[in-house]
Amino acid sequence: MLRVGIFELRDTVQRMERSIRARDEKLAQELMAAYDELVSRFTADFQDERDELLSRGGALMLIQQVLHKPAQ
Fold first, then answer.
1. Phi/psi at 47 (nearest 5 deg)?
2. Residue 43 domain-assigned?
3. Running DSSP on this structure, what letter comes out for residue 3?
4. Domain membership of residue 12 as a residue range
């Protein structure tokens, strides 16, 4: 199994954050505000930067999924 390096993980998380923050929708802004609160918890809870980045990436993937879901 391929293990992604810390630099690649960091770059991916930063790219995802920038992409979502660039959106004008109110929902995107609200979700990123909640994400920002979680980031401090991830930092406090995980001593390993890789674990923190994987958690942040998972949260960002969920935000992307919500934002890409067609309105009902």
1. -80, -30
2. yes
3. -
4. 6-68
State the Cα angle at 22 between 68 and 52, rounded to 5°: 80
Distance of CA 60 to the CA centre of its chain: 3
Burial of 41 (0-12, 13-18, 19+ CB in 10 A): exposed
Query: Into how many domains does the chain fold?
Result: 1
Q: What is the pLDDT of residues 7-58, one digit of tens each?
A: 999 999 999 999 999 999 999 999 999 999 999 999 999 999 999 999 999 9
Number of Cβ within a 10 Å radius of residue 31: 20
Is the pTM for the entire model greater than 0.70? yes
Q: Considering the domain boundaries, does residue 1 fall inside one?
A: no
Q: Following DSSP, what letter does each residue of 5-72 receive, concatenated? A: -HHHHHHHHHHHHHHHHT---HHHHHHHHHHHHHHHHHHHH-SSHHHHHHHHHHHHHHHHHHHHSPP-
